Structure formats: structure tokens, C-alpha cells
Amino acid sequence: MNAVPERKFGVVVVGVGRAGSVRMRDLQNPHASSAFLNLIGFVSRRDLKCIDEVLQISLEDALSSQEVEVAYICSESTSHEDYIRTFFGRLVWKWIAYHYINIRQFLNAGKHILVEYPMTLSRAAAQDLWELAEQKGKVLHEEHVELLMEEFAFLKKEVVGKELLKGSLLFTAGPLEEEQFGFPAFSGISRLTWLVSLFGELSLVSAILEERKEDQYMKMTVCLETENKRPLTWIEEKGPGLKRNRHLSFHFKSGSLENMPDVGVNKNIFLKDQNVFVQKLLGQFSEKELAVEKKRILHCLWLAEEIQKCCC
Asked: Phi first, then psi: what are they for 295, rounded to 5°?
């Protein structure tokens, strides 16, 4: 990717919320991967006209333009009631429904896709999108910046080659509204992705959701098992006064890891994700690597669905 690009892929950013704005910034700044990309414009449901000299274009123009070869699908929620009932018959927040619709539209128009996680709230829907991408010969990349964090790199080194006996991961944060951010197994899917990436595919033993909506409090406790029947507990706890933090405890035959040391500041993680995406565009990922990533993402979506069923 350090070579001088023979061509640039025209990019449109769909949705200019927080993530979309960061994506536009990275595309406009001189970076190794940005040299292979050319920001054509952005699409928004809001009438914004122009952002930092980048022009707003219509969805129809983005889909039909021969210049646009890549779509970055990002969220752009505008209100707390921003959810709809999808074809799966469940209430989901609207930007996830837009993700699915937009991905299908851009794939059918012959564009490569980079999309925020989760791309859908269903393993079946994600599988459907991947099959369409394969039919069209296009890259479908779901970002997982949590795997590019310094904390995860540290954990990966600590865990490799060790035999797990038991473990737990607790995530705490301030209150979230489910209508905006989805069921906790999906809004917290980055933590589930950590566990699957560290310890392999997991099976669900039990899941309990405790809610006190009048207090804006929620606690989800999920009991999982590794393929070797080692127990893992994942807890999401949100409420007033709770600080955003991760508390972990992993016990191995050779010792224990309790909580996360200070491993440095996470810098440019969205840019790192863009680097991965461009490598895929350039064919620098093997079929085996792509298959492993797809299997992990689909497994995490399946687990999140099963957890939601168990709690409901």
C-alpha cells in the first residue's frame, strides 16, 4: 500500500454523524490509504449543502455515478424515536435499517462497501448481504475498530498460547436508551467480539436482563462457554453515575490477568480501519483471512440474537 497508486477509488460517505465526520476527515488528510481514495461527496437526510468544501449529493446520484466506486455507510440518527419495524418484524433503531437498505442499494449498483458495525441485527440478513457482495464481486467490510485498539493488542499477546480456566468481562457506562442504541447484546457487540476473537467460538449457557427503567438502570449478565467448556461471563451494566470502563478477569493454568493496565492512547483507529479496507480493495487479503473474519462476524451476530431471545 506504500506504492504510488495507479488509480483512485471514488468514495461517497453516506451519513455524516460522528463516525461519518471522522471518515470524511481521514479521507481529506494525507495518509497512505487515503492516497488510493478520492472523496466525491456525502449523502445525508439533512440539508447540509457542503461540509469543509465537500459537496452534498443525492442518494440517487451517488448510486448512478460512475465516479463513485465505494460507499462508506455510517449512522446519522436524528432523534430518540428514530426506529422502525423492519421486515424481520422487530423494532430496531432506524439507522440499522438504513444500513441494510443502503448496503443492498450500493451493492446492486456495483459499489464496494465499508459499513459501521453492526451492519444488521440478524445473522441471516448479514449472510444475505455477503452473498450479494460475492455475486457482485465487491468488497463488503464491516468496521471493528475495537480490534485495532491498544487494549486489545495487549490482551491478544497476553492470551496467546495460554489455557483458559475461567474469565469475565464487565463493561460499565452511563445510561443508554434501547430505542436509540438497540438491545444490549447488539449495542455491546464490540465486547462480545473481543471475547470471540480472544477465545474462539462460544456457546450460550444463560442470559439475564435486569432493568429499572424509572432509574435508567440496566444490567445484562451473559454466561458463555468456550469450545473446551471453560466458563466466560460477560456483563453490560449501565446507569447514572457509572463511569465508562472495562473490568476483566481471566484465569489461566499459568496465571491470572486482572484488569487492564494503561497501555497508551488509541490513535487514529478509524484510519487504521480504512487501511484494512484499502488492503481489501487492492486484493491484499487472502481468501482464508476474509473467510475467518466473516465467520467471526456472523458468529457474533448469531450469539447476540440468541442472547436477546433468552432475555426476552
From this structure: -60, -40
Catalytic residue among 98, 117, 187, 305: 117
**Residue in 69, 76, 142, 143 annotated catalytic:** 143
In whole angstroms, what is the distance from residue 169 CA to residue 74 CA? 28
DSSP one-letter code for 61: H
For residue range 248-288, what is the model confidence (pLDDT) as tens digits? 999 999 999 998 878 878 889 999 999 999 999 999 999 99
pLDDT of residue 102: 87
Identify whether 67 is a catalytic site residue.
no
State the first-to-last Cα distance of the chain, in angstroms, to the nearest integer: 47
The verdict on whether 100 is a catalytic residue reads no
Which is it for the CA torsion 124, 88, 129, 141, positive or negative? Answer: negative
Whole-number Å distance between alpha carbons of 167 and 258:
10
146: annotated active-site residue: yes
Residue 66 buriedness (CB in 10 A; 0-12 / 13-18 / 19+) = exposed
Is 83 one of the catalytic residues? no
Residue with cell 427503567: 213
pLDDT lower than 50: segments of the chain:
78-93, 179
How many residues comprise the chain?
A: 312
**Alpha carbon of 45 to those of 23, 49, 218: distances in Å?**
17, 11, 32
